[in-house]
Amino acid sequence: MASKRFHILEIPSQDSSAALQQDVREGLFELPRSLPAKYFYDDQGSKLFDAICKTQDYYPTRTELSLLQKHVAEIIDAVKPNTCTELGAGTSAKTEIILAKLNSSLDAFTYLSIDVCEEVLIESAHRLLNKFANLRIESVIGEYIPAIQAAPKLASPALYAFIGSSIGNFTEQESIELLSEVANKMTAEDYFLIGMDRVKDKQILERAYDDSEGVTAKFNLNVLNVLNYKLGANFDLSKFLHQAIYNEKQQQIEMYLISQCDQEINFPMFDKTIKLEKGEKILTEISRKYTKSSIEYLLEKSGLKEAMHFEPSNEYFSLVLAKRQQ
Ligand code: AVJ
Asked: Is 52 in the pocket of ligand 1 (CB under 6 A)?
């Protein structure tokens, strides 16, 4: 029965509403205004993100998917994993390519999925267990770093995965901390597969984050709805515009919400009102873009080294297979 092959571990004592309140105090009540990107992903936001991945303009998902399809055999051949541990598993749509390969070559293997969203993990676990008879799943619900620390260490050779270029939401310092956490769990036999979006033409990047169907704009604005229902704030979404700019110096996309008029927003929970001027911006996401040398630097600083590197001929995206430094 499927349930015998599925276990969930919840990390105790993480007060997510206290964390949101602190993030809003530090980010939104101070200048320049910003919000952490993780708050995009309520139910509606997760659906909008899936819709973004299907737009013509958002190239990363399909580029990484075809890279994985093309190189999965090589990756599995190099790693020979018994287990797969994934950060930010989400719906595991791309990871299925790896799991399918393992299911056909192993009698039993374990997939450890880590994500903040319990419903998504449960839903995809049922789908995967129905598809793959030899699969066992352990899910850890939580933020990346506490989840990695709390997660059981699965048998080596282990394949760790952090795909989708989700690493791009973190500053350089935060990325190094996160990758180092995984590197510390790895044995000399283990590998870490990391998906990273590459620096490219400014127009292509800005289109990808401001798609012509307007899905990314809705996704960005939806974070204000999240603040409205979680904090009782009164953002009027029609008074904000979505903007995505590629910052060439920082090599990152920056998404903003721009106030279309002078307005006041109330936060009854904090007994606080903020004044936004016409044209004032809230930074809602950074999405960093990488070069071969910035990838090498990031790995080096995190106790990792490159073993294999896959990219398409247009060099739009990198799938990097890394090992521990020694
Ligand atoms: C899920 C963080 C990889 O940065 O490309 C997509 C999120 N934001 N469009 C990205 C996102 C706007 C996405 N990541």
From this structure: yes
